[in-house]
Amino acid sequence: MNPANHSQVTGFVLLGLSQVWELRFLFLIVFSVVYLLTVTGNLLIVAIVTSDPRLHTTMYFLLGNLSFLDFCYSTITAPRMLVDLLSGHPIISFGSCLTQLFSFHFIGGIKIFLLTVMAYDRYVAISQPLRYALIMNRTVCGLLMVASWVGGFIHSIVQVGLTVQLPFCGPDKLDNFYCDVPQLIKLACTDTFVLELLMVSNNGLVTLMCFLVLLGSYTALLFMLRGHSREGRSKALSTCASHIAVVTLIFVPCVYIYARPFRTFPMDKAVSVLYTMVTPMVNPAIYTLRNKEVIMAMKKLWRGKRTFWVPWNTDPQISRGRA
């Protein structure tokens, strides 16, 4: 489908975070550092998980995938935003806008499904440790990852499919630093009430339900830990606490943005910055600061010691994580 046949607008002006040059220059410095830390931290985790044989477990395989997705997620918006901060009139073409929208929801959808898989992995490791290696084997984990990617693709293509049919005849100013559904729908030259309901159902309600299910599952896990030994409980609690922190940082902003009518609120841009820039940066720190295995692997990688690859380990005693 050719968007030009349905629209008189060929591009949009991104209003960004501020029109004041001094603030834009400050944002440029701050978010350049944030993006650099995001890229370094997430790719470092990917390298560590890949290179250290002790981390060839289900839990760290999923963690490495999450770090890679965080890197991709931030790269979809951050480089464009940094360039636009230097431009007086940042303009994005209609096609580029839809591409950014698709990529943004594609990676975001995969992350949501991956976090659900990670919660299931912890549930099996804690509730059925003797059968963990059988249940969460390499084949099952790979299939769950494929399902996450397919789910993210379906979610994203629905967003683009509904948006591309809208007529855009002006205005052409997007009140954000990237293209997303809430801002685009407000510029459409038609009644979008029904479409908003569909978008809220596809985005907001699904995200909210996943968030509540994840919180419920981690709550159940915390109750299960009461019967474990003190050492085992401490390790599992540390891992679950990291997961809960990441889930909260990712899901709460998404629920705020998408599970409500698409209207402009004062905190919208701040929340957008939080989950597109800040959260991908802090996720590596949350997962590694209290994780002794990752810290040891990081030191080993830093010292330049070479290790030989060994088959993927699914030992439940290792996979439950050592914090």
UniProtKB/TrEMBL annotation:
Compartment(s) of residence: Membrane
Keyword flag Transmembrane: yes
CDD domains in UniProt: 7tmA_OR4D-like (cd15936)
Transmembrane parts of this sequence: 25-48, 60-82, 102-120, 140-158, 205-225, 237-258, 270-289
Gene3D superfamilies registered for this protein in UniProt: Rhodopsin 7-helix transmembrane proteins
This protein's UniProt keywords: G-protein coupled receptor, Membrane, Olfaction, Receptor, Sensory transduction, Transducer, Transmembrane, Transmembrane helix
Keyword Glycoprotein included in the entry's annotation: no
Domain G-protein coupled receptors family 1 profile: 41-287
Family matches, as InterPro entries: GPCR_Rhodpsn, GPCR_Rhodpsn_7TM, Olfact_rcpt, Olfactory_Receptors
Cellular component, GO annotation: plasma membrane
Pfam families from the UniProt entry: 7tm_4
Topology class, membrane: Multi-pass membrane protein
GO molecular function, one term: G protein-coupled receptor activity
Chief subcellular location: membrane
Function: Putative odorant or sperm cell receptor.
Name of the protein described by the UniProt record: Olfactory receptor 4D5
Lineage start: Eukaryota, Metazoa, Chordata, Craniata, Vertebrata
